[in-house]
């Protein structure tokens, strides 16, 4: 029992700690926007209590006085109708306004959390599964909303209705008042009894919610691979196991809830039995009238309801505590530094890497002592075996991550001195895995250059060799591409991504295997047009295909995170080192294929 009490104290402490957190105040602060609506709900809740009190008082008068047919009886009956109608009306309005507050708060909170997620660094998202964020946006926020909307409101009105009902019953008879007042707090015992077990189960339930999101996300995103590899059966049986766990967990929780409800209801029902027994004796002794007893019966549940609600609030606090910690962690994370810093001057900059070192995880070096220089307007090709660190160099240039040692400079100025928005506005990238949003072809080309005119979009499509296939689409530029561009071929997607990069008119262009999905003819057209749209830009080309590297001014051969060789393609070929070896193997590979 001592351990249970200790755990209870810990739980209360952790809830108190949560309530004091900055993220909690940010989310709760949102409710401040709806002060007016909250006030209306509070008044309506009090209206419901007032209707109940007036209804009980009408009962008391009716049964105490037992008036014969006539004005008083009809008056009391009219009061019955009026107070019942009043209770129903207040109840209805309270529900409607509660839902209005609820809907507003939950959507605004979701907006706040989503905005915060977009402000966090890419490293945060790369280290998490997207199901974690879904769990935050749906599961955890729902629990949080339940607390912020319903429970906070109840916590405000419950004391008022408990005190007013208690005082009223005291005036009926102190003994009946006392019974009503004692019955309420006794119900809280039920929470103490099951709290410990329930808390563990609820934390597990939250984790399980994450697992469900995880499996659903993986299945839906990997549908093509599932079908191609005939994984339907395996996926179904894995998800069945998750669902079986879920059923066991939910049933265990519901059983505990039912047990708690039973324990909670015992004092209430005992209150009825004792109250009616004592009341009947007092009535027989002439100490109270029949009306007093009827008023007691009518109101006892109103006196105990606040405590029944507190039991529910404790339950919802447990849910909030299980998920809120993660939600608040995200809300309190420092967003990517987007202010401060200088803007990148117009024109193509030079890029310098000076002994740059980097590790995604402690102890696993990905880049070490990487140094190279690309003069303004020149093209550098990053070449090397898979996993050598080429894409990581680009991520550092975007400032998605910061180097753990060394410096990256643009025009001789350290990268961190530039404001991120200005830096990224000057970078255009075509990567190997193209992401298209579910919109029209035109919208997808205009991403990052929303104000571009129709003529510019068309020109970008022309230079990226996309125009011909776009014209063949049913609605040309207005054709929808489907989720992730599912209705287009890989090569078509890549060409749209190239058009998108062209339209951005950036001063640094990053081409990460930009033509890997293009046929030889389209690729050579792309290479010749590259000079036209990116001639003045500083270009970083990541390529395995030597056809893409041929025209580079400078080659950096990266292997195991280190620069093995650097120089012009001709120099490196003459030296006959790793690059020349790579080139030869590539030629044989291209010949064989
Ligand atoms: N987000 C990440 N978290 C942890 N490790 C990562 C992450 N991204 C890449 N790595 C690791 O960093 C190393 C370099 O990866 P990178 O993608 O830069 O190589 P690459 O040369 O571009 O490879 P490829 O030619 O196959 O695209 C690899 O060992 C990879 O496993």
Automatic annotation (TrEMBL):
The keyword Glycosyltransferase does not apply. Keywords: ATP-binding, Cell membrane, Membrane, Nucleotide-binding, Transmembrane, Transmembrane helix, Transport. Gene3D superfamilies: ABC transporter type 1, transmembrane domain, P-loop containing nucleotide triphosphate hydrolases. Residues 351-585 form the ABC transporter domain. Residues 39-319 form the ABC transmembrane type-1 domain. Pfam families: ABC_membrane, ABC_tran. GO terms for cellular component: plasma membrane. CDD domains: ABC_6TM_exporters (cd07346). It is a multi-pass membrane protein. Its main location: membrane. The chain crosses the membrane at residues 26-53, 73-93, 147-169, 175-194, 270-300. InterPro entries: AAA+_ATPase (IPR003593), ABC1_TM_dom (IPR011527), ABC1_TM_sf (IPR036640), ABC_transporter-like_ATP-bd (IPR003439), ABC_transporter-like_CS (IPR017871), P-loop_NTPase (IPR027417), Type_1_exporter (IPR039421). It is found in: Cell membrane. SUPFAM superfamilies: ABC transporter transmembrane region (SSF90123), P-loop containing nucleoside triphosphate hydrolases (SSF52540). Signal peptide: none annotated. It comes from the Bacteria. One of its GO terms (molecular function) is ATP hydrolysis activity. This is ABC transporter ATP-binding protein.
């Amino acid at each position: 029992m001592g351990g249970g009490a200790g755990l209870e104290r810990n739980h209360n402490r952790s809830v108190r700690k949560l309530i004091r957190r900055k993220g909690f105040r940010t989310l709760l602060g949102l409710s401040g926007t709806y002060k007016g609506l909250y006030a209306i709900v509070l008044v309506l809740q009090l209206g419901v209590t007032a209707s109940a009190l007036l209804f009980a008082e009408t009962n008391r008068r009716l049964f105490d006085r037992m008036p014969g047919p006539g004005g008083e009886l009809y008056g009391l009956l009219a009061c019955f109708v009026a107070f019942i109608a009043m209770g129903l009306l207040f109840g209805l309005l309270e529900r409607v306004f509660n839902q209005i507050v609820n809907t507003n708060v939950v959507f605004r909170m979701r907006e706040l959390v989503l905005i915060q997620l977009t402000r966090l660094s890419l490293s945060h998202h790369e280290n998490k599964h997207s199901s974690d964020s879904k769990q935050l946006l749906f599961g955890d926020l729902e629990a949080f909303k339940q607390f912020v909307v319903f429970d906070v409101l109840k916590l405000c009105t419950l004391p008022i209705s408990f005190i007013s009902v208690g005082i009223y019953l005291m005036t009926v008879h102190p003994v009946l008042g006392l019974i009503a007042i004692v019955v309420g707090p006794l119900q809280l015992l039920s929470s103490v009894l099951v709290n410990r077990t329930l808390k563990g189960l609820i934390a597990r339930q939250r984790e399980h919610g994450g697992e469900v999101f995880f499996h659903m996300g993986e299945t839906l995103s990997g549908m093509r691979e599932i079908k191609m590899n005939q994984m339907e059966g395996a996926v179904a049986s894995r998800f069945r196991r998750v669902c079986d766990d879920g059923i066991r967990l939910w049933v265990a929780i519901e059983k505990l809830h039912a047990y708690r409800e039973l324990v909670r209801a015992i004092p209430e029902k005992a209150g009825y039995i004792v109250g009616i027994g004592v009341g009947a004796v007092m009535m027989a002794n002439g100490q109270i009238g029949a009306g007093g007893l009827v008023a007691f019966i009518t109101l006892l549940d109103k006196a105990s309801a606040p405590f029944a609600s507190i039991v529910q609030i404790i339950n919802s606090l447990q849910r909030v505590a299980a998920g809120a910690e993660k939600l608040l962690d995200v809300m309190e994370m420092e967003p990517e530094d987007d202010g401060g810093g200088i803007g990148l001057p117009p024109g193509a900059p030079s890029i310098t890497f000076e002994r740059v070192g980097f590790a995604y995880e402690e102890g696993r070096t990905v880049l070490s002592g990487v140094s190279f220089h690309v003069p303004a307007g020149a093209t550098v090709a990053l070449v090397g075996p898979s996993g050598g660190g080429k894409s990581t160099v680009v991520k550092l240039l975007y400032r998605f991550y910061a180097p753990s040692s060394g410096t990256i400079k643009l025009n001789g100025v350290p990268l961190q001195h530039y404001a991120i928005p200005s830096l990224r506005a000057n970078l255009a990238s075509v990567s190997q895995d193209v992401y298209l949003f579910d919109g029209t072809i035109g919208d997808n080309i205009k991403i990052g250059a929303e104000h571009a005119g129709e003529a510019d979009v068309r020109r970008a499509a022309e230079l990226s060799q996309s125009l011909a296939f776009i014209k063949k689409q049913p609605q040309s530029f207005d054709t929808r591409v489907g989720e992730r561009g599912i209705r287009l071929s890989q090569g078509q997607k890549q060409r749209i991504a190239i058009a998108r990069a062209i339209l951005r008119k950036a001063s640094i262009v990053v081409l990460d295997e930009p033509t890997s999905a293009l046929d030889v003819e389209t690729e050579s057209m792309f290479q010749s047009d590259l000079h036209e749209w990116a001639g003045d830009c500083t270009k970083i080309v990541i390529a395995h295909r030597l056809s893409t590297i041929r025209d580079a001014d400078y080659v950096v051969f990266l292997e195991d995170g280190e620069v093995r060789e650097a120089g012009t393609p001709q120099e490196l070929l003459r030296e006959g080192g790793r690059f020349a070896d790579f080139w030869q193997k590539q030629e044989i590979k291209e010949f064989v294929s």
